[in-house]
Amino acid sequence: MESFYTIQGEGFYQGRAAYFIRLGGCDVGCVWCDVKDSWDAAAHPSYSVEEIISKALNEVGGNAKNIIAVITGGEPLMYNLDALTNGLHKAGFQINIETSGAYTLSGNIDWICLSPKKFKEPLPEVIAKAQELKIIIYNKSDFAWAEKYAAQTPSECKLYLQPEWSKEKQMLPLMIDYIKQHPKWELSVQIHKYINVP
Ligand SMILES: C[S@@+](CC[C@H](N)C(=O)[O-])C[C@H]1O[C@@H](n2cnc3c(N)ncnc32)[C@H](O)[C@@H]1O
Ligand SMILES: Nc1nc2[nH]cc(C(=O)O)c2c(=O)[nH]1
Ligand code: SF4
Ligand SMILES: [Mg+2]
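^ thats the input. predicted complex w/ iron/sulfur cluster below
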């Protein structure tokens, strides 16, 4: 769908230089999704792996050292990621993925950020490999739902609660209280939306 060089706005790598590759297509159907125009893959042009990687290297200035490539979407695991991840590794990028976990894993990924959704629940194989769990808090019941997934992720998995953007003002005070009482969780806010970067 699109690719762009920016700052990772969320989670464990928040603040790090990151090249985002957003793959079109998603059938999970989150009512509050902030990239609904990604859902229809056919509405966007297609690019070869070679084109994506040469654009990436060009935009980061030719050297991928210390730059994370973030594969997102849409739901990126709807595709087989073998060729894309091989190419990005050859180019020198660390590869992170943002996923709902609803589809089977493919490719060689260094960091999996799992953001499970009620609308289409994640597969056990993705939960078992997650380095980061990022739960979107849209209403009060989402705290209990977050704990259900925290209990299934590996013990070293980083745990984040992130407010749904339109509910941020309302949910943040509850989230801060919750984290103070359950300090295994950390807060993630979408900083790119505050600093106006993509
Ligand atoms: C747009 S999704 C694409 C990747 C994948 N489909 C997923 O949901 O993880 C990227 C991240 O943005 C989060 N997100 C989407 N809409 C949001 C919103 N309105 N407020 C806060 N986070 C949101 C998702 O939960 C996910 O962690
Ligand atoms: N800056 C920035 N950080 C992000 N982290 C996850 C994003 C996503 O849409 O996957 C995202 C995004 O769209 N922009
Ligand atoms: S899974 Fe991700 S891309 Fe798909 S609708 Fe939900 S937030 Fe949007
Ligand atoms: Mg985003």
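The chain has a mean pLDDT of 98.
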